[in-house]
């Protein structure tokens, strides 16, 4: 499959790039520690939050940097000259991005097991769906046709950091003020966090099946939009 | 069937009309040169023919496939060396070639056999497992050519394949292109290098400001300068040569004339009168460069 070849290339090229590691792993980790230290919060609340945050940041850190980097390195034209469609390229990028999210999600899961938790297995399909959804979201950050990875990282940070505060990670959605609840509904991360909280034995805000359906809806929307936008944006990067 | 057919291609970028109706046909097995000054629209034409961008107007076929309607089929049948493009610097030469092979849907065994063959032919086999980051410019370009050739394409598009390379690398690439053409493959070659185009191409199209000026064989283009001869003369010290048709080119003057005897006498008379020393004087038949400049001048 051609999209697997693209994904393999992405993995070899981009997984170890500095900004991916910094914005995808280290920064959310520090943010989380800052939130944790000095507070008396229940461990299962923290574990659900840590998983949400890891999955979200890891899956949105690879997909947005691919296109600007390809433009900057001038590898893009060589790629576009090959007999592949834009959607194949996009799918390849998504596979690379969600694989990164899945790999990174093992870290908090293992930590949870070590601390004696056995999360509800529903978390596994939720992680698969969420990494896909967030990878597609990441692609929207690079729809702005710049060849500067730093600009794209800035755009993505501007969206990602506010989102984690309204998605029930630090404050459960139930406890948000009315306007907060409304805002949280437009964040796809809310629905994944909801499932994560359920699998760690806390009461979810919505029925779990509804969380899955909404996440799937977001995924399809982001995917269609990403393919449409990149069909134009890729050419403007040449 | 023609290898390449372009019909009235038009393309605009904002205010810039990059192509204003470009038409030509390239026969199978031909090396077709595409010559023009900077910004003439060469790369834009190549990008349309290789399915990377779409024309605003007009049609193009490569190998019989419409580049807009049957883009993937058209792309599968060609090899491309874009003007400014790189292999992936963090991948090895081998991984880069294999990536392209899988994107062309080649079987792994075929791809590996062909890659080994190409890497040896282009003299980079020993470095195949090294990252491209450390390659010299010439090695990178040879690798890009291997990548363009991996699928054994019927038509090869080369956008300034030798620009910026040293004499040796450029010569090697030219020799390989000629070998490829000997296997009845079609080569579409853009270049700024007159000697290169003159030596290699069966026919040449000259493009200027998005329009084809002329299409002809190198010899016929040269003969268009008229039955004239170019006389090159250089003087010791600064001299203003005021003879009809004299043009200053670098440190010498070039005069095109149909009557070389008369012109040489004029030059010598001039030198005597103004007591300027003639360092060298040469006559030569017009080159492709002369033809090129003259045709562009006529265009205005
Ligand atoms: N993506 C683009 N956006 C805006 N303008 C463009 C774009 N591509 C080409 N142009 C413009 O179209 C014209 C033709 O450019 P093109 O690259 O085809 O020229 P060229 O003949 O390949 O020149 P060169 O010899 O410098 O490579 C130029 O004026 C260029 O500025
Ligand atoms: Mg060009």
Describe this structure in words.
- The complex is a heterodimer of chains A (238) and B (300).
- Chain A is mostly helical.
- Chain A is built from eleven helices and no strands.
- Chain A has helices at 2-14, 18-36, 43-59, 63-73, 76-80, 86-114, 123-141, 149-165, 178-185, 188-199, 208-236.
- In chain A, helix 1 crosses helix 6 (86-114), helix 2 (18-36) packs antiparallel against helix 3 and helix 3 (43-59) runs antiparallel to helix 6 (86-114).
- Chain B is an alpha/beta fold and 300 residues long.
- In chain B, 36% of the residues lie in helices and 29% in strands.
- Chain B has helices spanning 42-49, 71-76, 93-103, 108-121, 137-149, 167-182, 194-200, 218-223, 260-273, 288-299; strands at residues 4-13, 16-26, 31-35, 57-62, 65-66, 78-81, 155-159, 186-191, 203-208, 211-216, 229-236, 246-249, 252-257, 277-284.
- In chain B, the strands form three sheets. Chain B has a six-stranded mixed sheet with strand order 6-7-8-3-9-10, with helices on both faces. In chain B, strands 2-1-4-5 form a four-stranded antiparallel sheet. Chain B has a four-stranded antiparallel sheet with strand order 12-13-11-14, with helices on one face.
- In chain B, strand 9 and strand 10 (211-216) form a beta hairpin.
- In chain B, helix 3 (93-103) crosses helix 4 (108-121) and helix 3 runs parallel beside helix 5.
- The longest helix of chain B is centred in the middle third of the chain and has 16 residues, at 167-182.
- The radius of gyration of chain B is 23 Å and the shape is globular.
- The mean pLDDT of chain B is 91.
- At the A-B interface, helix 1 and helix 5 of A face helix 2 and helix 3 of B.
- The complex binds adenosine-5'-triphosphate (ATP) and magnesium ion (MG).
- Adenosine-5'-triphosphate (ATP) binds at residues 13, 16, 18, 36, 38-44, 83 of chain B.
């Amino acid at each position: 499959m051609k999209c697997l070849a693209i994904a393999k290339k992405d993995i070899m090229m981009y997984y170890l790039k500095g900004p991916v590691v910094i914005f995808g792993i280290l920064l959310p980790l520090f943010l989380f520690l800052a939130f944790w230290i000095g507070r008396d919060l229940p461990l299962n609340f923290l574990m659900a939050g840590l998983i949400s945050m890891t999955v979200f940041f890891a899956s949105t850190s690879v997909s947005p940097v691919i296109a600007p980097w390809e433009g900057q390195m001038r590898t893009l034209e060589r790629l576009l000259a090959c007999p592949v469609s834009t959607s194949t390229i996009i799918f390849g990028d998504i596979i690379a991005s969600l694989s990164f999210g899945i790999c990174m999600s093992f870290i908090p899961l293992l930590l949870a097991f070590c601390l004696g938790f056995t999360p509800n297995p529903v978390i596994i399909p939720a992680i698969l769906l969420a990494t896909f959804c967030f990878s597609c979201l990441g692609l929207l950050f690079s729809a702005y046709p710049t060849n500067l990875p730093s600009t794209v990282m800035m755009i993505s940070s501007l969206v990602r950091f506010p989102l984690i505060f309204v998605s029930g990670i630090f404050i459960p959605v139930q406890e948000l003020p009315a306007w907060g609840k409304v805002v949280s509904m437009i964040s796809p991360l809310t629905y994944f966090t909801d499932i994560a909280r359920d699998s760690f034995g806390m009461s979810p805000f919505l029925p779990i099946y509804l969380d899955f359906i909404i996440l799937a809806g977001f995924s399809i929307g982001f995917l269609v939009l990403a393919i449409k936008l990149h069909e134009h944006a890729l050419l403007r990067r040449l | 069937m023609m290898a390449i057919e372009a019909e009235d291609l038009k393309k605009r970028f904002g205010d810039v009309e990059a192509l204003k109706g470009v038409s030509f046909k390239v026969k199978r097995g031909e090396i077709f040169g595409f010559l023009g000054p900077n910004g003439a629209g060469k790369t834009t034409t190549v990008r349309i023919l290789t399915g990377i961008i779409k024309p605003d107007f007009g049609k193009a076929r490569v190998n019989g496939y419409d580049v807009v309607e049957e883009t993937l089929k058209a792309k599968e049948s060609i090899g491309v060396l874009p003007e400014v493009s790189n292999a992936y610097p963090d991948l090895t030469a081998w991984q880069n070639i294999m990536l392209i092979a899988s994107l062309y849907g080649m079987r792994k065994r075929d791809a590996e056999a062909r890659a080994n063959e190409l890497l040896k032919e282009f003299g980079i086999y020993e470095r195949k497992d090294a990252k491209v980051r450390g390659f010299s410019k010439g090695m990178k370009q040879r690798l890009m050519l291997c990548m363009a050739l991996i699928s054994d394409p019927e038509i090869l598009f080369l956008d300034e394949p030798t620009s910026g390379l040293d004499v040796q690398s450029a010569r090697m690439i030219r020799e390989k292109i000629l070998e490829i053409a000997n296997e009845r493959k079609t080569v579409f070659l853009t270049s700024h290098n007159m000697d290169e185009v003159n030596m290699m191409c069966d026919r040449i199209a000259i493009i200027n400001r998005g329009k084809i000026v002329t299409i002809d064989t190198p010899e016929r283009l040269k003969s268009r300068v008229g039955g004239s001869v170019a006389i090159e003369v250089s003087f010791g010290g600064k001299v203003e040569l005021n003879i009809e048709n004299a043009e200053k080119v670098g440190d010498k003057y070039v005069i095109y004339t149909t009557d070389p005897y008369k012109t040489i006498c004029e030059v010598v008379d001039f030198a005597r009168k103004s007591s300027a020393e003639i360092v060298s004087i040469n006559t030569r038949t017009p080159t492709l460069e002369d033809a090129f400049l003259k045709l562009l001048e006529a265009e205005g």
